[in-house]
């Protein structure tokens, strides 16, 4: 099948993976049951059982469960005793879990299930070398993550942003631009402070391995996050026929601070609004236009063009 086809140069790259994706329970056929445990054995410099029990105790304490240093000492002793009774030279995962159930969890399975989920499997995200091949868009994203101190993590991270601060405004722009590109690293959530002001945003961040693949796919739109989001927004505006979708896109462009894409989107919006005689469609589009004008003041961008479309 390949005979006679022209040769094409390609490059391969590495994608950071997570312990949870390596676990057999995720459906990975070649997976293992306890990637977090083996990762601990690989990285622990000494006393692996003692260090493992200490990590268990720290996890349970974070969940407001009473676990003292005496609990840890007794759990280690019990794990060593179980290993001796079973003819093993050192306590393994089975012995440590049995000891944790009896001592740290006081016989309860519910805290032990938390240990299995957070430690035995875990959400540790791997890393790739800086010199590994990568598409330009991914390298630009990596540089932005470093400069904005947004480290990708496989755990949920709640992020409260005050758009009046430069660093928070830059973080907001990055997350909005990535969502335009289909890289849903962050999801907007309701503000936990109860504030209704438009200068606050709350995000929940979680980096999944497939987001690296989506970043590579989005590389067709540009070599930087800004350029790619701008090109994607322009293309989406031209290909959208529903008025409400165009107004929503204009709102997203303003949130993402895409000054080169917004005029093109607004031109399409004005054309769609002028040709659409359905009052229902116009009413559906109006809330997004009003929000766009309001956010223009908060983010320091000019909403005059959007206001003119809304007034018309």
Mean pLDDT: 84
Q: Separation of termini?
A: 59 Å
For the report, how would you describe the main beta sheet?
3 strands, antiparallel
Structural class: mainly alpha
Biggest sheet strand order reads: 1-3-2
| Count of discrete alpha- or pi-helical segments spanning 4 or more residues | 14
Low-confidence stretches: none
* DSSP, total strands: 3
The helix-strand sequence is HHHHHHHEHEEHHHHHH
Shape: elongated
Describe this structure in words.
- There is one protein chain.
- It contains 14 helices and 3 strands.
- With 312 residues, the chain is mainly alpha-helical.
- The protein folds into 3 domains: 19-121, no CATH class; 136-219, no CATH class; 240-311.
Compact summary:
The protein is mainly alpha-helical. It is built from 14 helices and three strands.
Strand-helix topology:
Layout: H1 19-22, H2 35-43, H3 48-62, H4 69-85, H5 93-104, H6 109-121, H7 136-147, E1 157-162, H8 166-180, E2 186-189, E3 200-205, H9 210-218, H10 225-239, H11 243-255, H12 262-275, H13 279-298, H14 304-311
Antiparallel strand pairs: 1-3, 2-3
Helix pairs in contact: 2-6, 3-4, 3-6, 4-5, 8-10, 10-12, 11-12, 11-13, 13-14
Please name the defining characteristics of this protein:
3 domains, 14 helices, mainly alpha, 312 residues
């Amino acid at each position: 099948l390949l005979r006679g086809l022209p040769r094409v140069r390609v490059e391969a790259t590495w994608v950071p993976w997570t312990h949870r994706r390596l676990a057999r329970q995720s459906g990975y056929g070649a997976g293992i049951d306890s990637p977090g445990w083996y990762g601990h054995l690989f990285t622990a410099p000494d006393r692996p059982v003692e260090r493992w029990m200490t990590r268990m105790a720290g996890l349970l304490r974070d969940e407001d469960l009473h676990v003292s240093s005496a609990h840890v000492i007794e759990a280690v002793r019990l794990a060593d005793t179980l290993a001796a009774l079973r003819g093993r030279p050192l306590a393994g995962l089975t012995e440590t879990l049995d000891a944790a159930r009896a001592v740290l969890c006081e016989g309860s399975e519910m805290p032990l299930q938390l240990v299995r989920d957070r430690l035995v499997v875990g959400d540790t995200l791997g890393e790739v070398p800086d010199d590994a091949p990568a598409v330009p868009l991914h390298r630009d994203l990596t540089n932005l993550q470093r400069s904005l101190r947004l480290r990708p993590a496989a755990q949920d991270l709640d992020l409260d942003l005050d758009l009046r601060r430069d660093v928070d405004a830059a973080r907001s722009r990055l997350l909005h631009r990535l969502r335009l590109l289909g890289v849903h690293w962050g999801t907007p959530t309701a503000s936990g402070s109860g504030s209704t002001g438009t200068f606050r945003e709350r995000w929940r961040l979680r980096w999944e391995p497939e987001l690296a693949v989506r970043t590579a796919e989005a590389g067709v739109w540009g070599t930087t996050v800004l350029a790619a989001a701008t090109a994607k927004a322009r293309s989406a505006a031209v290909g959208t026929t529903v008025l409400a979708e165009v107004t929503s896109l204009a709102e997203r462009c303003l949130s993402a601070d895409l000054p080169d894409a917004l005029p093109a989107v607004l031109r399409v919006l004005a054309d769609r609004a002028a040709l659409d005689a359905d009052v229902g469609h116009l009413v559906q589009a109006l809330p997004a236009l009003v929000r766009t004008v309001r956010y223009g003041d908060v983010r320091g961008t000019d909403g005059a063009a959007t206001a003119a479309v809304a007034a018309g």
